[in-house]
Amino acid sequence: MQSSNFYIFSCSIFNKMKKLLILAFIGILITACGKDDSYDPVEVDTQAPSKPLNVTATEQTENSLKLNWEAATDNVGVTGYRIYQDGTALAGLITETSTTILGLTAGTTYSFYVTALDAEENESDQSNTLEAFTIEQPLSFLPLLSQMGVFDGNLSDLNPTNGVQLYEINSTLFTDYSHKQRLIRLPDGQSMRYNNTDLLPAFPDNTLIAKTFYYNLDERDPSLGKKIIETRILLKVNDTWLVGDYIWNVAQTEATYRETGSTEAISYIDQNGNLQNVNYQIPSKQDCFTCHNNNSTTFPIGPKLRNLNFIPSYTNQNQLDHFAGLGLMQGVNSGSTTVLPNWEDETLLIEDRARAYIDVNCAHCHQPGGSAPSGFSIDFRLETPFDDTGIYTNRGEIIARFESTLPSYRMPQLGRTVVHGEALQMLNEYMDSL
Q1: CA angle 123, 129, 132 (to 5 degrees)
Q2: Any idea which fold 53-133 has?
Q3: Where does residue 227 fall: left (phi above 0), alpha (psi -120 to 50 degrees), or beta otherwise?
Q4: Please, is 85 exposed, middle or buried when counting C-beta atoms within 10 Å of its C-beta (0-12, 13-18, 19+)?
Q5: Does the predicted model carry a pTM greater than 0.85?
Q6: For every residue of 283-301, which 3-state class applies, written as one string?
Q7: What are the structural domain ranges in the chain?
Q8: Rounded distance, CA 384 to CA 367, Å?
Q9: What distance in Å separates the CA atoms of residue 381 and residue 385, rounded to the nearest whole number?
Q10: I need a labelling partner for 113 at 20 to 30 A (CA). Which of 187, 262, 337, 349 fits?
């Protein structure tokens, strides 16, 4: 009986423990399910992708350009790139690391930067900002000077328009005592560059160089007005220089493109109050090629680096440094190139003055490849050693030709009809010193 009661008691304890175990198991399940119901998922990484790098421009045309950039190595999640033009996002996303921008205006500078986006459209910081330009439409000689974009306002005021830069040269070419205004216009965003020489810099395509010839009606008082005769223009198109000339009308309101030469009677009052009469020669297109040519290649004559390396009248700064500050010249400054002496500076050595004058007035023809007949065996370039110039051997004939006004004998034959008295006196002194 006692044993039976113990069995019943043991079964009762077992049953209670079984129920407790079942209840505990159910509790664990409920707890687990409850945790499942309240589980917070792992947070999605919302960090923006890294920014694109090294945005550059290539394949510039008049109305388009190609942008290229690099993606950082951690840009695995990038799904596209957004292009900003002048601060405004362009429509659509780019999936490659380059794109061509269309519909641009010729000869204009634009600002671009690029950002990266991921699938959640998180946007990166902006890339470097790139200033890129489209090329200008190829320049050509239009019928009227007013159409060439050189001057602003009344044409006869000779006020350079925006983007046209005045320049001067240290030692000048003589043209029957006429005055000259020299201008240059470079394509937007481009510059002249050092060409590993103190001669001509490298000019970008679509460079325009203009030189206007005029006389003051009275040299004692320039405010009394001037007589403008011609504006000669050089255009660089497809790496080739083209020459053209615009002849001013009597009213001084316009100049017209012309390729034939002529002679124009000019009268003016000089510094001493004397009336001077000049039969001014307007060159033909072929005449221009005679001087602006070497080995069948056309080029400018005056704006050599060494002839720009001085302080001009329009600024108190060296001209090369002035150009560099304006972004018009790269790779050279006033201290890194030579100076062509000013032949009018009487404080200089007579040989330096004479060689500079001969260089700028004669050497474009009298050098290897120039238009002068090869039989003369002379080379008047400043950089030519004196013993190789032929100056000493031909000194008598040089003076005789400078003294002459005969068209077939005088030197230079083009560009002058009267004797340059001041230069002749200086050259006589030089030849006597040899």
Answers
A1: 130
A2: Immunoglobulin-like (2.60.40)
A3: beta
A4: middle
A5: no
A6: CCHHHHHHHCEECCEECCC
A7: 53-133, 138-340, 341-434
A8: 9
A9: 9
A10: 187
Contact status, residue 330 vs residue 191, Cβ threshold 8 Å: yes
User: Per-residue pLDDT averaged across 387-393, rounded?
Assistant: 95
Residue type at position 10: S
Token pair 């601060």 is found at: 87
Mean pLDDT of 7-33: 45
Distance CA 217, CA 225 (A): 6
**Is 275 or 376 the better-scoring residue by pLDDT?**
275
Helix pair angle (350-362, 421-433), 10° resolution: 120
Nearest to 106 by CA among 66, 129, 138, 58: 138
Yes or no: say if 229 and 178 are a contact pair by the CB < 8 Å rule.
yes
On whether the CB atoms of residues 367 and 228 are closer than 8 A, the answer is no
Phi-psi region at 27: left, alpha or beta (left = phi > 0; alpha = psi -120 to 50): alpha
| Residue 160 DSSP symbol | B
CA 387 centroid distance within chain: 38
Q: Which DSSP symbol is given to 21? A: H
Please choose, from the candidates 146, 184, 149, the residue with its C-alpha nearest in 3D space to the C-alpha of residue 168: 184
pLDDT digits (tens, 9 = 90+) for 265-293: 999 999 999 999 999 999 999 988 888 88
Bridge partners for 57 per DSSP: 67
Q: Which two tokens stand for residue 158?
A: 């000779």
Question: First and final CA of the chain: distance in angstroms?
Answer: 157
Helix (H) or strand (E) segment spanning residue 215: strand 208-216
Q: Which residues of 182-221 are buried (b: 16+ CB within 10 A; e: fewer)?
A: bbbbbbebbbbebeeebbbbebbbbbbbbbbbbbbebbee
Beta bridge partners of 165: 184
**CB of 203 within 8 A of CB of 187?**
no
Q: Tell the residue number behind the tokens 């100056």, with chain if given.
A: 391
